[in-house]
Amino acid sequence: MTHPSPRPPLRVAPAASCVLAAYVATVHAGALAVGVALPLPPAGTLLLAALILAGFAHAFWVHVLRRAPWSVVEVTLDDDGVSLLRRDGRGQRASLSDATYVGVHVLVLHMKSGRLRRDTLVLSADAMDAPTLRRLRTRLRLGEASPARAVDLVTDRNERLR
């Protein structure tokens, strides 16, 4: 019986994303517009606006610019799991969470590293080259890309089509 050969590690080091920056800005601007339109006293409106702006600053700093010391700047997927590299240079092993989202224009990698530690890396199509994005999507859609998992996915798909 032959065993499948191990896949080479897939290294993902995303570049800055204009699409993600525009999305984060648009969502927070919309939240700010709705917050200002609410019938709140002026102090409540100011507090809500401050919280929305703080959320925008945090999302932009951590996920768009990736400048926070704990921001994930590189991910390497291999047969044993995921290796994270943070902005401050620390490396860490992790596992992909079931909450990982694989879409057409965006991928959201949710990773568990430790008992309580959760990390997120948001990747849009303009953050990396097309071949790397395609390989990453394929690997994530097949779960841990084990042959048994791939057969289960194809079987489930075929049963839904009947």
Description:
This protein is α+β, with helices and mostly antiparallel strands. The protein folds into 2 domains: 16-65; 71-162. Helix content is 43%, strand content 23%. The protein has 4 helices and 7 strands, in the order βααββββββαα. The chain has helices spanning 18-37, 42-64, 130-141, 147-161, and strands spanning 10-12, 72-78, 81-86, 91-96, 101-102, 106-112, 118-124. Strands 1, 2, 3, 4, 5, 6 and 7 form a 7-stranded antiparallel beta sheet that branches. Strand 2 and strand 3 form a beta hairpin. The longest helix is centred in the first third of the chain and has 23 residues, at 42-64. It is elongated and about 65 Å long. Residues 145-151 have low confidence and may be disordered.
Query: Secondary-structure element order, as H and E?
Result: EHHEEEEEEHH
Number of domains: 2
Q: What is the distance, rounded to the nearest whole angstrom, between the alpha carbons of the first and last residues?
A: 33 Å
Low-confidence stretches: 145-151
Give a count of the beta strands, DSSP E runs of length 2 or more. 7
Helix content: 40-55%
